[in-house]
Specification:
This protein has 13 helices and 14 strands. By secondary structure, the protein is α+β, with helices and mostly antiparallel strands.
Length: 376
């Protein structure tokens, strides 16, 4: 039977788009579902600030009347202009083990992009770097994290058979936290702070609200990530959105902030307990009981593994050891809270500045994910 591709336009069709991977990966031990409410917000043209500079269409694939695949087609005009590309992105792509289904989905994205003047298709990518991106190509037996994609092993094989080539890879480290802070590490961090006239600042909720510290943090993200692959600078509207989305449940014992002598934020690191198991138990739903699992993992029965969610260092300080300072500040608190391991989340394979930090720890690469590209 031929594959039928339909645009997901109605609320019912968008619910089917959001729910499809839950059915595809039902009972898979490594799959971590997104919160459906978060996905609904991401795909909402009124709620998601990225639609100010992105176009998107959502496609569903049917075979014998049954839903068998989905994909989002996205054009990020800001990123294309910044990187001098004409990419139509594909994201949120999932499909049954049938290459014809994938071909039909990609053909729909390609045609949609060609009509809008694009010359290549690339992904998996989202609207911005704060969406899940990168197809898993190694580490299929490892549980995902709340911000990453999980996919079956046949995904990359099909893409390569269809002539897609590697654009870039991210790697993810599993890091064993030490039992205590090494004296040499502590001495080095203090020396870096003194030499550069920097200090670690401890924040309270009141300070964050009064000084709009969340906005300072995301402006720092813009500076430090500006030259990383595919990054598009966050607008003020997006920053407002991400402050609400990421920082409202932040445990300040699991965050570190470094300022210069003028009180300007120059480095920051945010971690949180792994929510993978909680999201699996919640099955992607906050209600009626999903929120209990999430709050339990955040504040009560924390897992022994944490996510290194966001780390940013001002460009002029990126070769001065500030990553080490952040960990000097964080490690004692993380050990006290009972964590034994950390997951780095995706780091560009070319980001050697960050990866050299893991040489001081018992750390291994345990996942790899990839962006594929194909000209048309």
């Amino acid at each position: 039977m031929s594959i039928e591709i339909r645009k997901a336009s109605s609320k019912k069709e968008m619910r089917a788009f959001i729910d499809f991977p839950t059915d595809l990966y039902r009972k898979h031990p490594c799959y971590v579902p997104n919160l459906r409410s978060d996905d609904a917000m991401t795909f909402d043209r009124e709620a998601n600030a990225a639609f100010d500079f992105c176009e998107a269409e959502f496609f569903l694939a049917y075979k014998d009347g049954k839903l068998v695949g989905r994909v989002a087609a996205i054009i990020n005009s800001k990123a294309n202009e910044r990187w001098n590309t004409k990419y139509v992105r594909f994201g949120w792509i999932d499909f049954i083990e049938d290459r014809e289904v994938l071909e039909a989905l990609l053909d729909a994205v390609t045609e949609w992009g060609r009509e809008r003047g694009m010359t290549a298709i690339a992904g998996p990518l989202g609207f911005t770097d704060f969406d899940p991106e990168g197809m898993l190509v190694e580490g299929f037996d490892k549980t995902g994290t709340m911000i990453t994609i999980y996919n079956h092993e046949y995904y990359p094989r099909y893409f390569e058979e269809l002539g897609f080539r590697k654009e870039i890879d991210w790697v993810e480290y599993l890091i064993k936290l030490p039992d205590g802070l090494d004296e040499r590490f502590e001495k080095m961090a203090k020396l870096i702070l003194e030499k550069n006239k920097l200090h670690i600042r401890k924040l309270t909720r009141r300070i964050i609200a009064k000084e709009k510290y969340g906005h300072k943090f995301f402006r720092l993200i813009n500076e430090s990530y500006a030259n990383l692959y595919g990054y598009s600078i966050l607008s003020d509207k997006q920053i407002d959105q991400y402050v609400r989305q990421y920082l409202t449940f932040l445990d300040l014992r699991m965050a570190s902030f470094v300022e210069d002598e003028n009180g300007e934020l120059v480095a920051a690191g945010i971690t949180l307990p792994s929510l993978a198991k909680a999201l699996q138990r919640a099955k992607g739903k906050l209600f009626p009981t999903g929120w209990i699992h999430l709050l339990n993992s955040l504040y009560v029965n924390r897992p022994d593994i944490l996510d290194l969610l966001l780390v940013a260092v001002k460009p002029e300080y990126q070769k001065k050891g500030l990553n080490a300072v952040l960990f000097y500040d964080l490690i004692p608190s993380l050990i006290k809270l009972g964590f034994k391991y950390a997951e780095s989340n995706p780091e560009l394979e070319t980001n050697h500045k960050v990866q050299t930090l893991w040489n001081a720890f018992d750390a291994t690469v345990h996942k790899r994910r990839r962006v594929y590209v194909k000209e048309f």
